[in-house]
Write a structure and sequence with these properties.
single chain, about 350 residues, alpha/beta, eight-stranded parallel barrel
C-alpha cells in the first residue's frame, strides 16, 4: 500500500513534538525546499570516546536533521562501552615468495583474528550491555532526543540494524527506542528474511521502516536488486526504503526513476557518490557516476518530503578531517540545489 502525502505529513509532525517551542533555535539546512541532514554513522571516527562530539559536529557543519545510529544513541544515554579492537594499518606486503611475518594469524577476509583474551573481553562487555538495556525506559531515550532538540537539530530517524540472529524482544527493543525518541521511522540494513519478520512489528507500532540497500546483487537475501525492493515492500504497509543512491548506482540502477515510482515509500535518501559496476566511493562528489544533482533537483521540483542525508564512507584524505569533508560535501549538495 502506498502512503499519501497526508500520511507522510502526519509522520513528520509526530517526529517533532518540540518543534514549536524550539523553532527559534533550529539549524536550517533546508535548501531549495529539500531537507539535508546526515546519518551519524558518518561521524563514527569522532564518536569514541566522546559521543557528544557528534552533536557538536552537526552544529559546526550546519546540519539541522539527524539519522541517529542506535549504538550512538545508547552511548549518549550512558551505555557501557564496547571494546574497540581497531588495529593499526598493516605493514607493507612482503615480496612474492617471502615467508609470512611471525604471528600473522588471519581470519576470514584476511583480517587479524581476535585473541582469546579479546574474545573474552568482548563477551563480558556484551553481557554488561544486555544488562544495561534491561534498565532503560522511555525516559532514557527522551533524554537523548532532548540533547538534539536543545542543539537545534531535528532527530528524524533511528538507524537500528537488525540481524537474523536477533530475538523478537531485540526487534521490539528497537521499536520502543524509536517511539520514545519521537522519530518518524526506523532505517535498517538487514536481509529479506528479517524484513518479513520486522513487518508485523512495524504494523503494530505504525512506524515506517526504511530498508537500506547495498550493491550485493549476487545475494538474493540482500536488499540490492529491484526485485528485492519489491519483495520487502510487499511484506507490509510500513515496509519502505532507505534509498542509498550511491549503492543503487553501483548496482546498476537508475535512482531518479526509482524515486519517481516509489517516493511515497521512501523514508530518506543516503547521499554519496560511487562509480558504476560496483565501483568505489569517490571523495570528490560530482566526479563519480551517481546522479546526485538530478536526484536533488527531482526532490526540489516535486517537493517530495524526503530527507537527503549525507553518508561519508570514503577514506579521509591526508591533511583533512571528517568535519572539513562534511562541509565540503554539504557545499556540493547546496550547489546542486541552487
Amino acid at each position: 500500500m502506498q502512503f499519501t502525502r497526508r500520511d507522510l505529513a502526519r509522520f513528520a509532525l509526530a517526529s517533532a513534538p518540540l518543534a514549536g517551542a524550539l523553532a527559534a533555535k533550529r539549524i536550517n539546512s533546508r535548501f531549495g525546499g529539500v531537507q539535508i541532514g546526515a546519518i551519524t554513522y558518518s561521524f563514527n571516527r569522532i564518536a569514541t570516546p566522546d559521543p557528544e562530539a557528534i552533536i557538536k559536529a552537526y552544529i559546526e557543519i550546519g546540519l539541522g536533521e539527524a539519522e541517529l545510529m542506535s549504538n550512538h544513541c545508547e552511548a549518549l544515554a550512558g551505555a557501557p562501552p564496547m571494546p574497540n579492537f581497531f588495529r593499526p594499518a598493516p605493514p607493507p606486503r612482503p615480496p612474492a615468495g617471502a615467508p609470512p611475518a611471525a604471528g600473522a594469524t588471519k581470519g576470514p577476509g584476511g583480517r587479524p583474528q581476535l585473541t582469546p583474551e579479546q574474545i573474552a573481553e568482548r563477551k563480558a562487555a556484551q553481557e554488561k550491555l544486555v544488562a544495561w538495556r534491561g534498565t532503560t525506559s522511555p525516559a532514557t531515550w527522551k533524554a537523548v532526543a532532548k540533547k538534539f532538540n536543545d542543539a537545534g537539530i531535528d532527530l528524524a530517524l533511528l538507524c537500528y540494524n537488525m540481524q537474523d540472529s536477533m530475538k523478537d524482544e531485540d526487534i521490539e527493543y528497537g521499536f520502543q527506542m524509536a517511539k520514545a525518541l519521537g522519530v518518524k521511522g526506523i532505517t535498517t540494513s538487514t536481509t529479506l528474511t528479517m524484513a518479513k519478520r520486522i513487518a508485523p512489528f512495524a504494523d503494530k507500532h505504525k512506524l515506517l521502516v526504511g530498508y537500506h540497500g547495498h550493491d550485493a546483487t549476487n545475494d538474493p537475501n540482500q536488499t540490492a536488486t529491484l526485485e528485492s525492493y519489491q519483495t520487502l515492500m510487499a511484506y507490509g504497509k510500513y515496509n519502505g526504503v532507505n534509498l542509498d543512491i550511491g549503492h543503487f548506482t553501483a548496482a546498476g540502477y537508475d535512482a531518479v526513476a526509482f524515486i519517481k515510482e516509489h517516493h511515497a515509500k521512501i523514508t530518506n535518501l543516503h547521499i554519496k557518490d560511487r562509480k558504476k559496476n560496483h565501483g568505489p566511493n569517490v571523495a570528490v562528489w560530482g566526479t563519480g557516476d551517481t546522479p546526485m544533482k538530478e536526484v536533488l533537483q527531482l526532490l526540489k521540483a516535486e517537493k517530495y518530503p524526503i530527507p537527503a542525508n549525507l553518508e561519508l564512507e570514503y577514506p579521509i584524505p591526508e591533511g583533512s578531517d571528517i568535519i572539513a569533508e562534511a562541509k565540503k560535501c554539504l557545499a556540493y549538495v547546496k550547489s546542486c540545489l541552487a
